[in-house]
Amino acid sequence: MVNDVYAALKETEDYVSDEYPYIKPSLPDSITFVDSQELEDEFPNLSPKERELEICKRHGSVFVTRIGDVLKSGQKHDGRSPDYDDWSLNGDILVYYDVLDCALELSSMGIRVDAAALKYQLEKSHAESRENLPFQKMILSDELPFTVGGGIGQSRICLYFLKKAHIGEVQSSIWMDEDLKKLEEAGIKLL
Asked: What superfamily would CATH give domain 2-113+147-152?
């Protein structure tokens, strides 16, 4: 599934580049898979966001797996709700974004918790009281089907493909006057 989503991103990037030749494609041909524990092992002295940046600079695009559970260091790579995605079956598509020199998350995806994963994750999070909520009860009693989840950050994809520096260049929103002034001074026009 990750490779399918990535192929669609590559196809979209090629289309944008064909339509607007001044926008050069930058996604690598394939995505690299890396486990959150492997990242911590390789970059033990960096924060999770710094690890993401380093691995994205190296590979261009990565799918970081197993987000939410505690790593060997006792820290989490990133927060995830214990009663949503199975921490062992989820991940994020990240790309290196040279415009902002950052790792940019384009998609988060995973398999929703089943009864065993929910029980484990609620215990690990000290949130066992949630077992009595209607949705969680239905999962624990196997009343709900297994599902796949995730989302694609449409505004982030536009930001990435159009090589913009601020999300307000691809989506309209309400911005504080002081932010608008700073952005205008920097030559950034918001929608």
From this structure: Bira Bifunctional Protein; Domain 2 (3.30.930.10)
